[in-house]
Write a structure and sequence with these properties.
The chain is built from 3 helices and 3 strands. With 65 residues, it is an alpha+beta fold. It has a 3-stranded antiparallel β-sheet with strand order 1-2-3.
């Protein structure tokens, strides 16, 4: 079996936790911030875990994480 290639775009966006879950940053924080509330922008700063439904596909894309 040949070595698997990591998708570099995904590798830059996701980090593995100690338990093997994937941590990601939230989207919608780059522009058009005037109409978003302060509370909403504050919550977008925080990192979150990847959803369980995407976990299997992400493990395929990131074989060595």
């Amino acid at each position: 079996m040949p070595k698997l290639k990591t998708k570099r775009a995904a590798a830059k966006r996701f980090k593995a936790t100690g338990t093997g879950k994937l941590k990601r940053n939230k989207a919608y924080k780059s522009h058009i911030l005037t109409k978003k509330t302060t509370k909403r922008k504050r919550n977008l700063r925080k990192a979150t875990m990847t959803d369980k439904t995407n976990e299997k596909n992400m493990k395929k894309i990131l074989p060595y994480m």
